[in-house]
Amino acid sequence: MAKVKGDIIVDIEKCKGCEVCIDACPTHTIEMSEKVNGKGYHFMQNVHDACTGCTNCAIVCPDGVITVYRIKV
Amino acid sequence: MSDTITKEQIFKPENIVYKKTDLMTDNVLSYCPGCGHGTTHRILMEVIDEMGLQSETIGIAPVGCSVLAYDFMNVDMQQAAHGRAPALATAIKRLLPNKTVFSYQGDGDLAAIGTAETIHACNRGENFTTIFINNGIYGMTGGQMAPTTLEGMKSSTSPYGREWHAMGHPLKMTELVARLPGTYYVTRQAVHTPAAVRKAKKAIRKAIELQQQKVGMTFVEVVSNCNSGWKMTPVNANKWMVENMFPFYPLGDIKVDGKLVKEV
């Protein structure tokens, strides 16, 4: 059982859908959305709860749209 | 137990482990999706934030894609004429020697039109930090060949690939300035993976710390992608960069504490 649990909040309107974060995620928690944002980009989103709050996605995000939360359980 | 954790319990301000630094403004970046400029802006501002230097920092924006850097970096900024950022940074640093000064330049600015300013500022050992974004192409104007374009690399003005008989050899600006006595710390980094970003951030922090010790020029090159100019998706552009750019522009420190650590 995971000892930490993480989650992310994405600033959807600022995401440009570059997909750089997808490869950076070690737990394959994030995927591109089918929907698009106001500018027509597919945005990234959290699809299941395997997130460990490692911050990798937020660190590589060129637009800094990801805020990472983490708690110990 | 983890099943019982709800989103409300996680999304609390005290649980934040990473958020965009306040030194980046809330303006939407003008860069293409996946461009390394955004990441480099952010790690530079994180370093300034962590060192508590927001009010003590003056940045120089170049001409090129990052001409609007002053819209995104929440520090004092000045925008220089094309290629003249080192000259402006020299003036600011000499007039206000206690301020932290950095120039942020792309390869069209630093390695093409501003070659003279760059080389002379490095040779004089001016005491500021240069951040050099190298994507091997003129990104802003539509992907034309730059001095840093690789041999055989296609661009809109070298559609059959760069061929040195007609177009010259690619210029390794960072190795060039590392040989000058005025530079103290010269390194080449990248921002395509989390590990590379962390390393690049450490290098920028080291450069800013060295600047405060007044040791001379500190020079950080960041090899970046230009997915629009290279006509690739961001992920493929990063792969292409690893396969083609890094063999010619190898990552790592070139000059540390005023001594060359790599054959150049």
Describe it:
The complex is a heterodimer of chains A (73) and B (264). With 73 residues, chain A is mainly β. Chain A has one domain: Alpha-Beta Plaits. In chain A, 14% of the residues lie in helices and 36% in strands. Chain A contains 2 helices and 4 strands. In chain A, the strands form 2 sheets. Chain A has a two-stranded antiparallel sheet with strand order 1-4. A two-stranded antiparallel sheet of chain A has the order 2-3. In chain A, a hairpin with a 5-residue loop joins strand 2 and strand 3. The longest helix of chain A has 5 residues. Chain B is an alpha/beta fold. Chain B has one domain: Rossmann fold, CATH 3.40.50.970. Chain B has an 8-stranded mixed sheet with strand order 3-2-4-5-9-8-10-11, sandwiched between helices. A two-stranded antiparallel sheet of chain B has the order 6-7. The model of chain B has no long low-confidence stretch (mean pLDDT 93). Classes of the chains: A mainly beta (73), B alpha/beta (264). Chains A and B meet through strand 1, helix 1, helix 2 and strand 4 of A and helix 1, strand 1, helix 2, helix 9 and helix 11 of B.
